[in-house]
Every structure is written in structure tokens, then in C-alpha cells.
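Holo model, iron/sulfur cluster. Inputs:
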Amino acid sequence: METMQEIENQKQYIEKVRIQNEGKELKYYILTMGCQLNENDSEKICGMTEKMGYKLTEDYTQADLVIFNTCCVRENAEDRLFGKLGELKKVKEKRGTIIAIGGCMMQEKHITEKIHESYPYTDIIFGTHTLHKFPEDLYKILENKKKLQDVIDIDGNVYEGIPIKRTSNVKASVTIMYGCNNFCTYCIVPYVRGRERSRHPKDILEEVNLLAKEGYKEITLLGQNVNSYLRAEKWKEQGKEYKGINSFATLLKEISKIDGIERIRFISPHPKDFTDDVIDAIASSEKICKLIHLPLQSGSTNVLKTMNRKYSKEQYLELVEKMKAKIPNLTLSTDIIVGFAGETEEDFQDTLDVVKKVCFEQVYMFIYSRRVGTPGDKMENQVPEEIKHERFDRLKELVESQILKNNQKYVGTIQKVLVEGPSKNNPELLTGRTDSNKVVIFEGDLSLKDKIIELKIVSEHMWYLKGIII
Ligand code: SAH
Ligand code: SF4
Ligand code: F3S
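Output:
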């Protein structure tokens, strides 16, 4: 109730700013860093901003309002933000542009302190728990012209009904839970996103039903650990459920029933919570894509232990075998961190070994980046940078050879492809994605855009496949 009232208050601020901005033809620019959860948050920031009378521009030098939605999962994002903020100084002097920075990095004190010190022309700093208050923050800046910081450290609430402007009209992201309780020792996310809180199934079903009505075909369910959906909710502990939904598996089943939605994806599940009911739900629904993202992080049981991942190399491989046995046409993607504290050559060999055994469809590889405030940062046996890079290159080589091998199995097959539109590299051709998220390039009419069609794959290349309409 309280949260509903809060959103109503924010709607009034939206209206106040809109009236102030009327007739001014104002533009905004937004830069989003980080994961799909942040992208989904940005869709909400855009939704609120456009309702306040701003139109999107791709050119920040022409913007009256610049918004950065930041990530702090690895160090390079910090360099990027400070670089961009430096560039903005001149634009601000010229146009009086309002500068607003939000997102995960703003939950870190040493970062906000640096912004106050080195980039004092920043107008609004908002955090992950105060995103819904952006209209109020912007209103205050317009009224008082005094810079403002709106960051809270406690776990935020779940807010429903924030306006949203989606980036696609056929694929949509739906956040099902916020925060993380896992505290992997390398990871900053639990500190900047707070504890796990799940959206009520009713709100999720309403959102997906609406998306289906609007013509969306593919949805991706988002959370830092989707398979612990509803685990931390008190109402569930009392034995209650909504339309039979009391877990991630039951949510998947119910969403699969929604007419119009043809593809369901989700990221990220945690291997330790990949229960049999989730495997069964995937196997029994045609709509749930058979490309599953299963973050490995390391193939070494020792490193997994210091990472606090709560599974061993063997348990991960057993899970993969079980999934492969139960889910026909399963393909897997993963995340791997190279060079975590204490990782020896032998440990790294274990990672290579798992990669060889599983033969992932896609591997997102990261060099370990020490994050202030995490246990990993305080570990003594840090791996020297040059060794991290050298291992990264070796892993990359193996992964690329596997992708080529994997791609070969597509040649000659028929694939269902969701057509996205003209290819960026060659606008004469169309591009789309298979169930397993592979890019396919093919000749066809633009009227096929947003449709799911069948293509025969005729050749494979490193990052895409070529197909023909059958
Ligand atoms: N909750 C998700 C994703 C978290 S962040 C999960 O558990 O899979 C996305 C990825 O960034 C992680 O899977 C991990 O591979 C990587 N990552 C997180 N912290 C990192 C760090 N400090 N250095 C390098 N990579 C990191
Ligand atoms: Fe970070 Fe681990 Fe939580 Fe993923 S599960 S967000 S890696 S702490
Ligand atoms: Fe980055 Fe925050 Fe996502 S730290 S990876 S944007 S949850």
C-alpha cells in the first residue's frame, strides 16, 4: 500500500515537471552500463523521463538532461564513467545540461565522494533503491537548482507501476526479483543491490499478459539468482501461493500458459539452486528456450570454495549431465572469471577441462577485478595481472575453437528464427535469432520483421550463421 502511494506521489511530480517543460522541446540522453537488470531499470528511467516531456537524443552535446545508469561489477566501468563526466563539463557550461547519475556505482561511498570532489557540476546522484523517485529528484533540481544526492543503504521496496519505455516491440525483459543473498566473494552486487526481494506473481503475470496483448513474442525473466524466486518472501512461508505459484518452476509453468508469448528465457540461475522441478519445467514447455545460461565462474573446486559458490567441479558437471539427459536439444552458455585470488595453474586447468567437457555455446569471460568491500579484495594471494591476461587469452582461444565446432552442427538444420530487422553490417540482409540465441543472417522481405519463421542454415561463421527461407 505504502509503495502504491509512493508511486502515486511520483506521478504527481511527473505531472509537475511536464507542465514546467511544456512547449520547450527538451531532449535527454541516457547511457546504460552493466547487465540486463540495469537495462530494464533504464527502460523505467526513460519511461518516467519521457512522461516529463523529454525526447530521446543519441547526441549528448544536444541534451538538456544527461542520465548515466552505472554498473560497478568490474573496474573498467569506473574509468568509463569518469571519462564521460569529464567530457560533460563543457556541454554543461554551454547548455546548462542537467547531469544525473544513478545505478549500482552510486551505492558506493568512495565513488560518490569522488564525484562530489572532482565532478561537482553533477546535479543528481540517485541509487538503486531510489530509482522510482527520479521525478521528485528532477523536480527539486528544476525548482532549487541545488545539487542533490538521493541514495539509501537499506534494502528498497518493490515498486509496481513505474512508467516504462521498452527498447523493442517484440522482445521484453521482465525483472522478477531484485537483490542477491549469495555473497560470492568476488562480487559487489549484494552490497549495491541489497537483499533478495521477489515481485508478487500477480504483478509479473499481469505484466507478461499485457506484453502478450501488445504483441511481444519473447520475454526474458531477470534476477541475480532467478531460481531462488520467492524464497525470501514472508507471505510464502505462511504456505500461501498465487495461482499455484510458489517457486521459480511454478512461475515458469504459469508464464508458459500465456497465449502470444512464444519464447521464454531467463537469466541468471545459480547452479546450486537448479532443482529438478526447474529442469522438468524447462523440458516440458515448448516455449522455454533450450539455451540455458549456467554460470560456472571457475572449474576448480578449490577456487569455487573460496568464491563461496557452494558447488564443486563434479557437482557442476553432474548437473550438466542431468540437464542434458532430461532436456532434448539443450545448449549452454556460461560466465567464467579468470585469475581470482589463489587461482593456480592447476586450478585454471580445471576451468579449461570443464569448458572442454561441456562445450558451451557461448562463454562470457572476465578477468578478475578486485572490488572494494568484498572478501575477495582482502585475500592475500592475488594473481599478478600478466598471468591473469595470459590465462584469459588461453581460455579465449579454447572457447573460440569450440564456438566454431558448435556452429558446424547447425549447418543443414532447420531453425526457428525471430526476425529482428535489417542487419547492421549489411542492411540488404535481415537478421534474427534462433531459440539458442544465435544470430542468423538471410535474404528476405522487411515485412518478416517481428515474426518467427523457419530458416535452413546453409553456412556458419564465427559470430553468425547464414540461412535461407524454406
Ligand atoms: N548474478 C549473476 C550475474 C552477476 S554479474 C550470476 O551469479 O551469475 C555477471 C558476471 O560478472 C558474473 O557471473 C561474473 O562472472 C562476473 N563478475 C562478477 N564480479 C566480478 C569481478 N569482481 N571480477 C570479474 N568478473 C566479475
Ligand atoms: Fe554476484 Fe554471486 Fe549474487 Fe551473482 S549470485 S550477483 S555473482 S553474489
Ligand atoms: Fe552491474 Fe549492477 Fe548489474 S553492478 S552487473 S549493473 S546489478
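The mean pLDDT is 95. The two ends are 53 Å apart (CA to CA).
Archived with the compound record.
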